[in-house]
Amino acid sequence: MTEANGIGAYFGEPKAPFLMVRPVRDARFSVTRLQCRLKGELSRIVSLPADDAYFLMFYFKDVMHSDVVPGESESEIRRYRQGSVCLVDLVEGASIRLVSDLDSLAFHLPRALFREVSTFSHAPAATSLRCRRGEVDDVMHNLALALLPLLAENESEPGAVLQHIAVAICAHLLHSYPDRANASGGPDLSVWQEKAVKDFMIDHWAKDFSFASAAATANLPEEVFTAAFASATGQTPEEWLMRYRIARAKRYLIEEGWSLSKTATSCGYADEARFIEAFRQVTGVTPDIWRARWLQ
C-alpha cells in the first residue's frame, strides 16, 4: 500500500488531509481524515490491498456499511456507532460497501510499527491483534480528537506531538486488543457475535436486563456465551457492562456536573451506594475523589 498521499484515494477522496511520521525508528504511522459524501451515489465500494499491516478506522459519526469478500456473499449492512473503531488485518486486503456518508480517521499501522513500539514503551510484546468491529473506545476517541488540530494545520513536518500520539495509539491497541488464543477448548465467539452482544448491552446499558437476552443475540445459551465472551475479551459480560457504565458516569460527572445520585440512577444503578462501589472497583477511588482529581 502506498503511503505517499495517505489512503484517501482508496475511499474516492485523493485530496483528504493526512499525516505521516516515523514515531520510533523506521516503520511509518499514517492517519487520514476522511469525510466522504456519497452525493447521490447509492453506495461506494472501498477496497484496500493486501499488506503486512493493520487498518484502523475511528468513527466520528454513525455510519452504515457492509463487508465485501471476493467469492462470497456480501454481508448484511451494519451500523457502526459514533465513537467506535474497526480494526482489520490487511494480510488478505479488505473491502466494504459504504452506504452512508463517512466522517472518520483512518490509520495505516504496519506490523513492524507494533514491534518497534513494544520495545520502545511499556506496551506488551508485539503479537497479533484481534479484529474489532464497531468497538466503542473512549481512549481512541480522546486520541482522535487530539489529532484533529494537527490534520487541520496539515503541516508537512508535524513534529513530536504526532510522534507521541502515534506511540500512544499503538500501545493502547496492544494493551486493549491482543489476539487471545482460545485455550479453553470451548466455543469461539465470532467478531459478529461479539459486536451483536455489545450492541445489545449498549442499547440497554442503563436498564436492568438479563444476560440471557444478551446471549440470545449471539444465538448461544447463557452459560456458553459467558465463557466464550470471557475467552474473547478477558472480561465477563458483567465486568464489561460495569466498565461501560462507569465510562458513561465519568462523562456525566465532569461534562454535566451531575450529582452522584442522579449519575447513579442514569447509569442503571439501584442506589448511590452500589454505584460508588462499582466506581471504586473500576477506578480504585470513589467518584468524589476521582472528580476532584480530574478538576485540579
Key features of this structure:
four-stranded antiparallel beta sheet, Arc Repressor Mutant, subunit A, 2 domains, 296 residues, Jelly Rolls, six-stranded antiparallel beta sheet, alpha+beta, 10 helices
Could you outline the blueprint of secondary structure elements for this entry?
Elements: E1 4-7, E2 18-21, E3 29-36, E4 44-48, E5 53-59, E6 63-67, E7 78-80, E8 84-89, E9 94-98, E10 102-110, H1 111-120, E11 132-136, H2 138-153, H3 160-176, H4 191-203, H5 211-217, H6 222-233, H7 237-256, H8 260-266, H9 272-283, H10 287-295
Antiparallel strand pairs: 2-3, 3-10, 4-9, 5-8, 5-10, 6-7, 6-9, 8-11
Helix pairs in contact: 1-3, 2-3, 4-5, 8-9
Provide a brief overview of the structure.
By secondary structure, the chain is α+β, with helices and mostly antiparallel strands. The chain has ten helices and eleven strands. It has helices at residues 111-120, 138-153, 160-176, 191-203, 211-217, 222-233, 237-256, 260-266, 272-283, 287-295, and strands spanning 4-7, 18-21, 29-36, 44-48, 53-59, 63-67, 78-80, 84-89, 94-98, 102-110, 132-136.
How far apart are the first and last residues' alpha carbons, in Å? 45 Å
| Strand order in the sheet with the most strands | 2-3-10-5-8-11
Structural class: alpha+beta
Described by the principal axes of the CA atoms, the overall outline is globular
Q: Tell me the β content.
A: 15-25%
Low-confidence stretches: none
Number of domains: 2
CATH structural architecture of the largest domain: Sandwich
Task: Give the fraction of residues assigned to helices.
Answer: 40-55%
Count of β-strands: 11
Task: Write out the CATH superfamily name of the largest domain.
Answer: Jelly Rolls
